[in-house]
Amino acid sequence: MYDQIISNKRKTILLVTLVASFVIALGWFLSWQYNNPAILFLAVIISFSQTLASYYYSDKMALMSTGARLAPYQDFLALHRLVENLAITAGVPKPKVYIIPNQGLNAFATGRDPEHASIAVTAGLLEKLTKPQLEGVISHELSHIKNYDIRVMTMVVILIGIISLASNFFLRWQFWGGGRERGEGGSGNQIIALLGFVFIILSPITAMLIQLAISRKREYLADASGALLTRYPEGLASALEVISKNARPISGVSSATAHLFIANPFTKQNVSSLFSTHPPIKDRIKKLREMV
């Protein structure tokens, strides 16, 4: 468990470096193309400020996008007590608890560290699951918090968002006839310009593949850690079965935040395609039942 926490902290540093490197590389290319060094300086400022702001506020944006609202303690007493007890067992502070007003069955954890974490569950999840099943889901989310998965997940959201936004902005600029000073030069300049365009086009795809690789692996790890927390793997396994059979899309979710959820928030069936942010639910259930 400790090794996983260390690994996640290293991944956070790597993702921050990737975000900053991409924006600075884009700034360098634009400053080269338009022969304006000020663009590179602006890119460095944007890279730093955007990463810092997203690090502290991306959890709030994720909660806001789904319409999640704080769960009043007295109105959701059983849920709060369940979270409190499992948080004590996991050895983490009790996270804030949110309710998503949606009849789909899903949940996610977000935040930058265990001291600033939140768990959100849908209204449908509370209605459909039994207490052991709900314990399984909450323990899964608490495992993300304890293992610092939430910090890595936050940085993945930042990585996807910044790269997609910057790439889209650059391509639109070029389409509408942004400066072409360097591209009209010799063959050397044209090669550099071509490489720059390839970099811009492939970057969002690379970012998405990073998202998929991280999110799939961490789901298996959180399943195992959550099952160990409750000492009842069948609780989470049966919860995933119910979620799979009753799944429906969650409104307000973007592709950048889909990996935060315990199950794919877009589709009604198990997704096993190359571009799914989640491993197939049937495989997760199988692994959990092998722990019994």
UniProtKB/TrEMBL annotation:
It is found in: Cell membrane. Its EC number is 3.4.24.-. Residues 77-291 form the Peptidase M48 domain. Its cofactor is Zn(2+). Binds 1 zinc ion per subunit. It comes from the Bacteria. It is a multi-pass membrane protein. InterPro entries: HtpX_protease, Pept_M48_protease_HtpX, Peptidase_M48. It is an enzyme of class 3 (hydrolase). Pfam families: Peptidase_M48. GO terms for molecular function: metalloendopeptidase activity; zinc ion binding. Keywords: Cell membrane, Hydrolase, Membrane, Metal-binding, Metalloprotease, Protease, Transmembrane, Transmembrane helix, Zinc. The chain crosses the membrane at residues 12-32, 38-57, 152-171, 191-214. This is Protease HtpX homolog. It comes from Candidatus Berkelbacteria bacterium CG_4_9_14_3_um_filter_39_23. The lineage of its organism: Bacteria, Candidatus Berkelbacteria. The gene is htpX.
